[in-house]
Each structure stands twice: as structure tokens, then as C-alpha cells.
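Side project, low priority. Logging it here so it doesn't get lost.
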Amino acid sequence: MEKLQQLYEGKAKKVFATDDPELLIVDYKDDATAFNGLKKGTIAGKGVINNQMSNRLMAYLEKQGIPTHFVKELSERETLVKKVSIVPLEVIVRNIAAGSFSKHYGVEEGVVFEQPTIEFSYKNDELGDPLLNTYHALALKLATPEEIKTIEDYSFRINDALKAFWLTCGVTLVDFKLEFGRLPDGSIVLADESWHQGVVGIVASRMAEEYSCPTFLICLDGDKGKASGKKVETPAPAANEPLPDAKEFLERDNQLRMSLQFVKSLPKIRTIH
């Protein structure tokens, strides 16, 4: 398996292409973040622990009949995974009242639920990952009714399996978060590939700031793509300054036209949200 170019770098990992178009290599980092990346730091060895713990749990869940994106561990930091299209839903399963649940609903922390609860949030950093229900998810076309049913079923089965696993370690499972992805054949698997369409606006803005030129960024998902265009704010000239040369504006505008021409040349894109 040959490791090729880096496709993405997120808060916790880097994702690389391989010589197999259906497989990726995930490299876990030592970076630590909180509050959607607003607070950042580094913990030596965190990537090694995250990689190995994730792989052990994925392998355990596979044995319990839960399909995952896990293929095999390559090194202490790298893992080979199936390429998926991430479903932009974060799934939170809770067994005991704690944290944000207690704060939002006025329930005392530590109350054990008679049955686990499940919550969905829209995986979108720009919006702060807002909570939503099934009808919101369907209205926003984040998933189909069949996919939501599959995700719910898998989530509760994962909860049962993990509660039993952690109980053998003397640990009580209070709550946890899951993400799922679609394989090329449309089947749903437990996964976390990090790059998703919800961050395209943030990335476009940062690229426009970094390179000081208009940016048009597209995030592909099969034959669909989500695009975001960001302009560069040019300060108005002072009253005693001459107007900028028209050539400067034409060159900058031409960069945006070239980006748009590139988009038109992508035959696979039939829908741009």
C-alpha cells in the first residue's frame, strides 16, 4: 500500500490518499482542541493512544456485527481505512444525565435513564453543530429515512456493546458521540473521516486571507459538491491617493473567472448546494 498526497488536515488527524482509490491512510496528531477548535494545545503521545484505542474499539465492534471503516493498523500512529462520504450528522447517545443535557433540560447530573437517549446535531462548524431532529435532517437532505433508521439501530447496538466492554474495565459509560459514513455502494458504516462539506466556507475564508486573492472552493461528495466563494476585502484608497491601476483588478478578477471555469469543467458535478 503506497501512501500518496495529503488530502486533509483536521483538528486531530491527517488524511492521505493511497494507490487504492477506495482506501485512505489516517495519521493521528498530538494536537488537542476544545470548543470547536477555539482552544488549542499539544499532548505528547496523544495521537498514538487515539489511534490504537480507536482501532481496538473498531475491531471489537466489528466482532459484534457493527460495520466500520477500519481496515488495519499500519503503525502506532497510522491506520488504513475505507474511503467514505461522511453523513453530516453527529450522533450523541446518553445513558446518564450529565454535561449539556443536564444544563439544557434541568436534570440533575447522575440520573440514570430507564432507556438510552439519542440526539442528532448538524455537523457544521460555522453554525456551531446545532441540535436537530429527524424531520430537520430530512428537510436538509442530510440523510434518507432509511439511513437515519440504520444509524439509530447501529447507535443503540454500539451502546449495548460498549457498555458491556467498559463494564469489564470497571468503567461506567455515561455518554459518547458517533459519526457514520457512506461506502460507494451506499451502505452505512461507523466512521470518522474528518473532512465534510460543512467546513467548506471556513476553509475558503482562511484561504482567501492567507493568499490575499478571491477563493472559490468546492467539496466533492460523489457527483455532488458544495461550494463557497470568498472575496478579498480591499480597503478604499485615501482621498489623496490615486485610484489603483485597473490592471490589478482585472488580474484579481481573472483569478475568480478561472476558478469558475474550473467548476464548469467538472463533468461529475450535477448539483451545487
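Brief comment: Confidence is low (pLDDT under 50) at residues 193-199, 262-273.
Revisit when time allows.
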